[in-house]
UniProtKB/TrEMBL annotation:
EC number: 2.7.1.24
Gene: coaE
Family: Belongs to the CoaE family.
Residues that coordinate or bind ATP: 14-19
Swiss-Prot/TrEMBL keywords: ATP-binding, Coenzyme A biosynthesis, Cytoplasm, Kinase, Nucleotide-binding, Transferase
Compartmental location: Cytoplasm
Reaction catalyzed: 3'-dephospho-CoA + ATP = ADP + CoA + H(+)
Transmembrane residue ranges: none
UniProt cross-references to InterPro entries, sorted A to Z: Depp_CoAkinase (IPR001977), P-loop_NTPase (IPR027417)
Coiled-coil intervals: none
GO MF assignments: ATP binding; dephospho-CoA kinase activity
Identification of the protein by name: Dephospho-CoA kinase
Amino acid sequence: MPGCWRVGLTGGIGSGKSTVAALLAGLGAIVVDTDRIARSLAEPGGAAIDAIRNDFGAEFIDAAGGMDRARMRSAVFADAAVRRRLEAILHPLIGAETDRQAAAAEGPIVVFDVPLLAESATWRARVDEVWVIDCAEETQVRRIVARSGWSSDAARAVIASQTSRTRRRAIADVVIDNDAITLDALAEIVGTLWTARAGLHA
Ligand SMILES: CC(C)(COP(=O)(O)OP(=O)(O)OC[C@H]1O[C@@H](n2cnc3c(N)ncnc32)[C@H](O)[C@@H]1O)[C@@H](O)C(=O)NCCC(=O)NCCS
Ligand SMILES: Nc1ncnc2c1ncn2[C@@H]1O[C@H](COP(=O)(O)OP(=O)(O)OP(=O)(O)O)[C@@H](O)[C@H]1O
């Protein structure tokens, strides 16, 4: 990874980050997905499980030995102090695994999919440019409800825990407006951005 171009991809929940990351992977980018890393840490046998059990109690561990995600989601998005406790366990581990994957990445462009990049004090300095996927909150809610079957209140609670669209856009080098456009149109925008980077960082 030394010398590679690092793109930080971020956006609010349901904005379309994973969709854009998948398009970029299809175009040849190496993608480091911090949501996926967070999930693997909290799977049965994952590096965060003992700390989660010790801090939150055995009732937050499911029958298979992984974190009970639905229970944790309800707790975390109802109380910012609880969310910070979980983040204090997971974020250092996510950071270490992200560094490990990035160091192993072979390719001219690495894309970091980081939902909380704008909330982080350290992430901006770790990437060469930031792409923000942006859409109206109502669009986020509609997509989350359709994708995950959550209630709209549950979706709004997550949005409320995240930074505002304005603050997120303020750190963007590129804003991808993913509202009221088709997936084909999104793919075209991403393709154009990728072609420009691939030409510069071959
Ligand atoms: C809260 C948890 C248990 C909810 O799990 P669930 O399977 O329902 O959701 P999933 O992990 O797929 O996350 C969905 C989205 O929620 C949002 N989200 C997740 N964690 C947070 C957080 N700490 N603060 C704000 N938004 C968050 C992000 O937009 C993320 O893309 C889980 O997200 C978690 O363990 N979060 C703590 C780790 C973290 O901060 N991850 C996000 C950055 S890597
Ligand atoms: N332009 C679009 N048109 C139609 N559907 C879209 C569009 N962009 C994203 N979606 C859909 O919206 C949903 C949310 O998108 P995606 O999972 O990429 O968001 P995300 O930002 O990664 O969400 P999360 O923060 O939960 O990980 C998905 O079902 C996706 O297919």
